Backbone:
């Protein structure tokens, strides 16, 4: 068996030290080297893509970004690591792992369990995004754009609108726009608290709605355009969505 | 000394759909009827006959009364206690009068009034009995709650601490030993008798043990400032009032942050009051509110159980800091919750 490249993400230094100790203990059975460590979720997103790690030991309870969301963003990588989750106590997460056939270890970790999990992970493919999304259950705090060896995170709270364009979805923040490869319908479901549909192909952030303008193109019936905070662009509201939007704005006073 | 409040449980009408309540009503009314028969009859034999005679009148009425209370139980339960009692008594009297009236074709108003009075009196006595019954049980309830409050600890903390100790054993066995001793002390206080006051100095020692464990896990991420010079070590307070607050401060103010977090612990005496303040960085206001509320409610309840209205706890989020402040009387005499 070749040497397994391992990345450890845990916010507690003693926990990382303990895992390294255990990896040495089982080196006879599963030879491995630690190719990187991260002290919180965002650091893992930053460092894992360039680490060439084959297995990621990923703590669930981490500051910056929790383990499950980290895994969801990493799932977009072309040759990402297999993931073994590690948790001290998260009954909810453990149930989700069981349901979705994701591998996990409980802290304190036993050497034998670690060896078994690594052997399994060495042969396994990285978990796929949908499996992780089901296990996560929550809405993400970031959307990610995956480049070859880099993951660019965009905070969901910065997003003004999401618009489907053929194969991609354009994601617009105040400063720039990105293309992501996720179906708009799934995004609508995941972020229904934050975004509202204004058109067959477009979701806008509820918070960003500043008002509505009437537009009357010469050869068409007049219709409504939404005015958004932070950007110049006006977006058309479909006749079907208009009554619901009007109510939404009236409720807000 | 008013140390344990009981009004949360005792100010409730009995649940008229509860089998135990129904059984108690049946037994009490029939026992009263039997006693009345024994008293009124010239001989034991006559008493039995009279009881049976009365029962033919009484049992259908009793059945109607219970059926009515059963049906109205939910509505009555929503009323205030005095109003609920009044309505139950009035209902009992009215049903008895109507029942008597129906039997005698409204021919004897005096009998109707007597039946109504009898029913009203019995209903009143029974309500009083149920009230006492609930009161007799509520100290046990309060105590059970007290113990439940105390035995909570975050499993997250326990397993992570054990994990941290495991990481220490080979590199720093001495520190590993100390940490296990700290953990043992912490757990001992968690399972100890919750009904007695503890000395502030002991509570502070507990805080320091807890802090040492967290320090091991979190390293330089956790920075605690202790301001304890003016803390009266002989002051008495309920057990485990401060430690959960520090635990909350770490859990909400340090662990979710990628940068180091400052926690302030200040305890001081001002005249006949003891003020304790624990402060942490406000990371996620929403999570803080949700996760915190239960722990805070627990502590508030415990303060009330020991000090009644004399202690206060306030929380405030401002300027990026979250602050909990306890203001309690400076007590030095031993008093216990049974007192």
Residues:
């Amino acid at each position: 068996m070749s040497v397994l490249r391992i990345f450890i993400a845990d916010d507690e230094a003693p926990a990382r030290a303990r895992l390294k100790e255990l990896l040495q203990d089982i080196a006879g059975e599963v030879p491995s080297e630690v190719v990187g460590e991260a002290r919180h979720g965002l650091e893992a997103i930053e460092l894992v893509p360039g680490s060439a790690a084959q297995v990621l030991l990923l703590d669930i309870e981490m500051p910056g970004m929790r383990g499950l969301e980290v895994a969801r963003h990493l799932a977009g990588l072309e040759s990402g690591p297999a993931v073994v989750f590690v948790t001290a106590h998260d009954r909810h997460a453990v149930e989700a792992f069981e349901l979705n056939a994701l591998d996990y270890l409980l802290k304190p970790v036993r050497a034998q369990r670690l060896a078994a999990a690594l052997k399994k992970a060495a042969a396994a493919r990285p978990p796929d995004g949908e499996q992780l999304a089901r296990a996560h259950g929550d809405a993400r705090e970031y959307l990610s754009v995956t480049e070859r060896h880099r993951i660019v995170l965009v905070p969901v709270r910065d997003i003004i609108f999401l618009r489907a364009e053929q194969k991609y979805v354009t994601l617009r923040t105040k400063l720039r726009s990105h293309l992501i490869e996720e179906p708009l319908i799934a995004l609508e479901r995941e972020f229904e608290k934050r975004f509202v549909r204004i058109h067959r192909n477009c979701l806008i952030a509820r918070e960003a709605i500043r008002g509505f303008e009437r537009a009357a193109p010469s050869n068409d019936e007049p219709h409504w355009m939404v005015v958004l905070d932070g950007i110049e662009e006006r977006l058309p509201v479909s006749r079907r969505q208009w009554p619901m939007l009007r109510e939404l704005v009236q409720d807000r006073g | 000394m008013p140390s344990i409040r009981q009004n949360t449980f005792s100010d409730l009408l009995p649940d008229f759909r509860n089998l135990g309540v129904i059984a108690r009503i049946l037994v009490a009314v029939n026992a009263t009827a039997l006693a009345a028969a024994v008293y009124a009859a010239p001989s034991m034999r006559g008493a039995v006959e009279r009881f049976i005679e009365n029962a033919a009148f009484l049992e259908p009425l009793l059945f109607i009364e219970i059926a009515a209370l059963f049906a109205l139980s939910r509505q009555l339960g929503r009323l205030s206690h005095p109003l609920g009692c009044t309505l139950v008594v009035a209902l009992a009297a009215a049903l008895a009068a109507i029942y008597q009236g129906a039997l005698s074709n409204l021919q004897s108003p005096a009998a109707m009034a007597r039946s109504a009075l009898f029913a009203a009196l019995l209903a009143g006595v029974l309500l009083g009995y149920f009230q006492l019954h609930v009161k007799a049980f509520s100290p046990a309830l309060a105590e059970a709650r007290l113990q439940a409050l105390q035995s909570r600890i975050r499993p997250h903390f326990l397993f992570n601490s054990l994990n941290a100790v495991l990481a220490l054993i080979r590199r720093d066995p001495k520190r590993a030993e100390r940490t296990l001793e700290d953990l043992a002390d912490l757990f001992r206080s968690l399972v100890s008798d919750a009904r007695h006051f503890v000395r502030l100095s002991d509570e502070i020692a507990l805080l320091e043990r807890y802090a040492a464990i967290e320090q091991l896990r979190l390293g330089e991420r956790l920075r605690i400032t202790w301001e304890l010079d003016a803390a009266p070590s002989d002051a008495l307070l309920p057990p485990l009032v401060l430690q959960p607050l520090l635990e909350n401060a770490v859990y909400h103010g340090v662990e979710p942050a990628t940068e180091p977090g400052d926690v302030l612990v200040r305890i001081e005496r001002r005249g006949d009051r003891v003020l304790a303040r624990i402060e942490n960085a406000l990371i996620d206001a929403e999570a803080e509110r949700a996760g915190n509320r239960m722990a805070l409610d627990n502590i508030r309840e415990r303060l009330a159980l020991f000090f009644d209205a004399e202690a206060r706890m306030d929380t405030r989020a401002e300027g990026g800091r979250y602050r909990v402040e306890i203001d309690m009387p400076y007590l030095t005499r031993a008093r216990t919750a049974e007192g």
Observations:
- The beta strands of chain B are 198-199, 222-227, 236-237, 261-270, 273-281, 312-318, 321-329.
- The mean pLDDT of chain B is 84.
- The interface with chain A takes residues 154-156, 158-160, 162-164, 166-168, 170-171, 216-219, 221, 255-258 of chain B (CB under 8 Å).
- Chain B has ten helices and seven strands.
